[in-house]
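Fill in residues.
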């Protein structure tokens, strides 16, 4: 019986470790130990087991997983309080009567939850944002067309980009997989990048929503440089190199 319980607990830890790595990029043993409430030695054993199974790669002090397109529901469960703090700060920037463009991703969804009761227009390709706001009659809701990516609950493709070329929004709230020290905004999913770039062109002011795990985070495809951003809302101090790059480009860094 004890062995069975132990196996269940280990399997649960393994799932949580993989979720944390997939949503936030490389993670240190000490960070994982704190998140899981277990000893660093236990985390190291878990990482060794997961590496043997081909599910991650151990690096100095921690581990990484191969970048990939993770289901929305899986990513949505990670770092919710941090995302909510960022969302609340971002929502405070919006004034009634303004138009708001919301990117795909889980932080944009948390922001949508903060917008109930507001007299604003929301434009999005995020199906979860649409579902969250569709019954709020005070919000003018514009759903962009496109090809449905079911697992990540988003719309992409040339139809989405064409729609964006016909629109203009007071604010764009942009998500990211990672922010490099030079201030470059990255994404793990190539198919989303053209839509994000079209959103940037459609937004009067561009706000990047990035929790602590996004510095540097992950991503092989560049979405934009720091010169395309106006504000970064995060929940932790940004490392010196990245902050310098952002400030040199005139980007305001707001800590939630």
């Amino acid at each position: 019986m004890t062995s069975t319980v132990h196996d269940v607990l280990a399997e649960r830890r393994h799932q949580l470790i993989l979720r944390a790595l997939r949503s936030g990029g490389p993670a240190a043993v000490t960070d994982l130990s704190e998140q899981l409430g277990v000893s660093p030695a236990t985390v190291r054993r878990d990482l060794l087991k997961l590496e043997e199974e081909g599910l991650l790669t151990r690096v100095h002090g921690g581990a990484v997983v191969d970048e990939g397109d993770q289901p929305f529901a899986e990513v949505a469960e990670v770092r919710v309080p941090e995302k909510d703090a960022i969302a609340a700060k971002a929502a405070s920037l919006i004034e009634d009567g303004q138009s708001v463009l919301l990117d795909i991703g889980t932080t944009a969804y948390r922001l949508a939850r903060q917008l109930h009761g507001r007299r604003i227009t929301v434009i999005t390709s995020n199906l979860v944002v649409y579902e969250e706001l569709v019954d709020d009659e005070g919000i003018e809701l514009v759903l962009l067309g496109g090809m449905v990516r079911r697992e990540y609950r988003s719309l992409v493709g040339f139809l989405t980009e064409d729609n964006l070329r016909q629109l203009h929004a007071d604010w764009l709230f942009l998500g990211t997989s990672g922010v490099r020290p030079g201030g470059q905004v990255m994404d793990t999913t190539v198919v989303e990048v053209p839509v994000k770039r079209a959103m940037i062109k459609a937004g009067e002011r561009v706000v990047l929503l990035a929790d602590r795990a996004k510095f540097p985070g992950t991503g092989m495809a560049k979405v934009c440089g720091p010169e395309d951003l106006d504000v970064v809302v995060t929940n932790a101090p940004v490392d010196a190199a990245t902050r310098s790059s952002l400030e040199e480009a005139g980007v305001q860094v707001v800590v939630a």
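The mean pLDDT is 86.
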